Amino acid sequence: MPFTRVVAMAGGVGGARLAHGLAQCLAAEALTVIVNTGDDFEWLGLTLCPDLDTVLYTLAGIENRKQGWGRARDTGHVLEALGPLGAPTWFHVGDRDLATHLRRSELLWKGYSLTEVTRVLAQALGVGPRVLPMTDDELRTRVVTPEGEMDFQEYFVKRACEPRVVGFRFEGLETAQASQAVLEALEHAELVVLCPSNPYVSLDPILSLPGIRERVRNRPALAVSPIIAGAAVKGPAAKMMRELGLEPGAPEIARHFAGTVQGLVIDTADAGSTAEIEAMGLRVRAAPSLMRGPSGRAALARVVLDFGQELAGGVHVDVGDRPRQAA
Ligand code: GDP
Ligand code: CA
């Protein structure tokens, strides 16, 4: 029986790619993508949501594949004109991308929640699956370095991930709540997929919100390793692991998510770690996990759904938290 309620959790590029693969394999109404908003920030008075945009653009097929952020076939006239006006230009915003930030900010100013704004943008871009920000509240990832704390985008873009990472702090976590839509989607999920996103700055912010991790634990859930053969496909995940005193590799990813998910998809290159990961109490599926192009995304999604069927069939579900039937 094909899944009718799959919930994926994603940060930016890695998560968006697998979400797009899942979208190719499932009916649109069968997929919900919960997206990290810890990277969000204010730019020239506008609210920017980089991970939400990456997921929306990728699902709409208009992402800039070369850059890894922004829209395809974009231009940079606004940024070019901003420089001489004395505005900061270290964060690159394309002209078409800017249209998204303007429209989002306008709707937020009018009083829409980020969840509602995202629904409007998704519909306008022709995105079928439901895309949900993890929260409508402000939660900001701060990177702790020997120089002190900095905003995530300052670390990631302005400083090009150069400062050594000592830890992370999610500012606003004391008061931020997961949205109702997110909590409900998780409660009804037949399968939860933690996409191959950065565990520390893309997935942990989502999982840290009250009520999320326990809901994931109560569902059939699996993660896909973003680390292949000891290296990140892109971005600072492996560098962060080394700086945190962890050995970049599938076993460390497994340790990170053990107790939250029941299964881990690792790359065939890491199949040698299977026994070590199984000893942590996780089921393992080894498969080619580098997503090359849309067909590569769908191929990994098929592995994920097949493994998910296996987990969903044999998962132990607490009596008090029986899988609910759709209304
Ligand atoms: P960001 O917000 O754009 O940095 O995006 P994410 O946190 O979602 O994605 C970054 C992570 O995705 C990195 O750790 C990459 O190793 C991982 N990633 C990107 N592409 C792939 C892929 O094709 N396969 C796997 N397994 N991981 C990938
Ligand atoms: Ca991100």
How would you describe the shape?
globular
Helix-strand pattern: EHEEEHHHHEEEHEHEHHEEEHHEHEH
The counted number of beta strands is 14
- Unreliable stretches, pLDDT < 50, 5 or more residues? 315-327
CATH architectural group = 3-Layer(aba) Sandwich
SS-derived structural category? alpha/beta
Which small molecules are bound?
guanosine-5'-diphosphate, calcium ion
Please tally the helical runs, counting DSSP H or I stretches of 4 or more residues.
13
Compute the CA-based radius of gyration. Answer: 19 Å
- Looking at the structure, the CATH topology is Rossmann fold
CATH superfamily: CofD-like domains
Helix content: 25-40%
| Beta content | 15-25%
Distance, first to last CA: 18 Å
CATH class: Alpha Beta
Average pLDDT score: 95
Molecular structure report:
The chain has helices spanning 13-25, 50-60, 77-82, 95-109, 114-124, 152-158, 180-187, 199-208, 212-217, 237-243, 250-257, 274-278, 293-314; strands at residues 6-10, 31-35, 41-43, 46-48, 130-133, 140-145, 148-151, 167-171, 191-194, 221-224, 227-228, 231-232, 263-267, 283-287. It has 327 residues and is α/β, with parallel strands linked by helices. The protein has a single domain (6-143, 171-311), classed as Rossmann fold (3-Layer(aba) Sandwich), CATH 3.40.50.10680. The strands form four sheets. Strands 5-2-1-9-10-13-14 form a seven-stranded parallel β-sheet, sandwiched between helices. Helix 1 (13-25) runs parallel beside helix 2 (50-60) and helix 1 crosses helix 13 (293-314). The two termini are 18 Å apart. The structure holds guanosine-5'-diphosphate and calcium ion. The site of guanosine-5'-diphosphate has 25 residues, from helix 1 and helix 2. Guanosine-5'-diphosphate binds at residues 10-15, 17, 51, 54, 196-198, 202, 224-226, 228, 232-235, 237, 289-291.
